[in-house]
Amino acid sequence: NLVDFEKYSETHHIDSGKLAEPILKQYGYSQDFIDKVKRCIFAHRASVLHDKISVEEVCLADADAIDYYIS
Question: How far is residue 46's CA from residue 35's CA, in Å, rounded to a whole number?
């Protein structure tokens, strides 16, 4: 379940990548693309410090932080 926040609240940045991989494979995305998406998901959590390597990682992390403060 992709929206079971209670189950994944502390580890959603890890578990979401694991959940996304088979979905992306089902739609025919390359493993390289899937790895990049998983890295973005993993690195987006503000409370866990990780180096953001790509522009996409920075954008997702910033958007997530903004959403946190707006919500």
Answer: 20
H-type helices in 9-71, by residue range? 12-26, 31-43, 55-70
Give the span between the Cα atoms of 16 and 71, in whole angstroms.
20
Nearest Cα neighbor of 65 from 54, 53, 49 is 49
Structure tokens at 5: 């926040």
Comparing C-alpha atoms, which of 33, 36, 38, 34 is closest to residue 16? Answer: 38
> How many other C-beta atoms lie within 10 A of the C-beta of residue 18?
12
pLDDT digits (tens, 9 = 90+) for 24-71: 999 999 999 999 999 888 877 655 556 767 888 888 887 877 877 887
Q: Which helix (H) or strand (E) is 8 found in, with range?
A: helix 5-8
